[in-house]
UniProtKB/TrEMBL annotation:
Keyword S-adenosyl-L-methionine tagged: no
Protein name: CbiX/SirB N-terminal domain-containing protein
Family matches, as InterPro entries: CbiX-like (IPR002762), Sirohydro_Cobaltochel/CbiX (IPR050963)
Pfam families: CbiX
Keywords for this protein: Lyase, Metal-binding
Amino acid sequence: MKKPGVLIISHGSKDSGWTELVDHAVMQLSLPDGVPVYASFLENVEGRLIQDGIDELEQNGVTDILAVPLFISAGSTHVDEIEYALGAKPVPEKETDLELFRVKSRIHYGHPLHDDPLLATMIWDKLKPYSQEPSKEVILLIGHGSRHDGFRQRWEQGFSTLASLVKEISGVSEADYALLNPDHIKDKAAGYIEQGYRVLAMPLFLSAGYFTNVEIPKRLDGIDVEYSGDRTLLPHPLLHQWIEEQVDDMLRALADA
């Protein structure tokens, strides 16, 4: 007999507000009866780490763990190293200090938000209050990015697709992206302003923190943009829908296996 359980995995933060935002999204989930769910964190949340989640689910008789990486991009090195540490892939693409977890159950590893159309809708929902005249505006999505070859390209692909989707939904003149790694945030924003556009800059992070409050404003210093630093993705009602759709896909695959 197979008994599935859901393990939500996000980065974690010493700020309890991060944990509360993730927990709030998880509490909204509507899962099939008898499917337990545990929200775990890669670091910084004592007693709620990934191994704690694995142990809790297995103690409840779970034989198949449906792991959902709650990260923005498939280009995140964390997505890769967690997949490896769970035993869902034989070797990581990039060297990691993360040790293998103790896992007895079968692992089914999902995917991050990346370029999902639901994410594009969430982005425009957050930016819409800042928009005044879409035909004269440019949306600039700002993400973490990566210096590592292979991972950087995934960030670029995902954000490029998202920008196209957001442009279509919003009706703005243009939508583009810029990354912290490699850094071309200031150049991108300044270029659009020189062309006469009003730039709506959104940090594409799950929750506010150092990057949204300090690092990105520093990179934009002296550039006249409308920065929505207080409108990160969480909370948003569509996030639990995204998780539910992914879990449903994995449950169907498990039933067919």
